[in-house]
Amino acid sequence: MKTLxxxxxxxxxxxxxxxxxxxxxxxxxxxxxxxxEKKIGIIVYQDAPSAAxxxxxxxxEGVPVEIRQGHFAAPTRAFLPREAFREPLADIRxxxxxxxxxDKEFEPxxxxxxxxxDFFYFDSWQGTLGLAIRDKNGKPVILSNRHVICGKNxxxxxxxxxxxYEFFSHLAASLVAWNLGDVTYQGKKYGIDAAIAxxxxxxxxxxxxxxxxxxxxxxxxxxxGMEVTKSGLTTDVTTGTVTAIDVDCISNTSGVILSRQIIIxxxxxxxxxSESGDSGSAIIQTKTNxxxxxxxxxxxxxxxxxxxxxxxxLDFFECTI
Length: 321
Prior knowledge:
single chain; mainly beta; GMP Synthetase, Chain A, domain 3; Thrombin, subunit H
């Protein structure tokens, strides 16, 4: 039986080839079979029809390969259907937000609450503010996904709303920087779907505070078996376990390859750890309150959540917690 270190090396050597096979959407290292047994292997995800011939090998250099169905996408919760638009738009309250305590103005802003671009689109959306972090000048900026707080063609200075709303009615921050795709961190490629924005319009933000969770206490690298928690707009506070790492994934939403991602499953079998609208949530190591990732998507068929490691994100934006 191969060690975890050996398995990670074998996956890295074969990832590009496997990811290039028909229907394959992701490949990583994690728990296969019965999760309780913690047997480690290579996991391959595919969108193959049932009649498609198997092209992924059953083992790679002696490491067992488990095939799972589906793909990972980066959904945001739809804000308003196109037919609902009418004047005045600022008076409309989406039904899916009524009574949600996270969808109100938080001053100062904190993680775990609603956010979206402060601009009008006929196809509008909302997600979660992950948390406030410290930029290179020591000032607070808010962190979420690129696909949550950026418009379709973002430029620096674009507005961000908190709570998520329309027509500049809750302008809270100004877009600073963003990225969707791989960045280089410590000599390796890591995928990130992230953006930061600076509080504006008289708004402020509290670094490290997240709705419903203890204040964060630094950062930590994800590890197999690590128990983690998130606080998101749609599913509130949920607890899960890291069940796969080093996942190279083709985002079904953007078509971009994101390298070395993290997969999380809910600790309650059969439940979702996250759903649409939770995109942008910070992933917290439960025991230490350390930030370990930023949630960006999931696989509906397997009910798994995907997130990016936090360290490459902070390095790319020259930020700290």
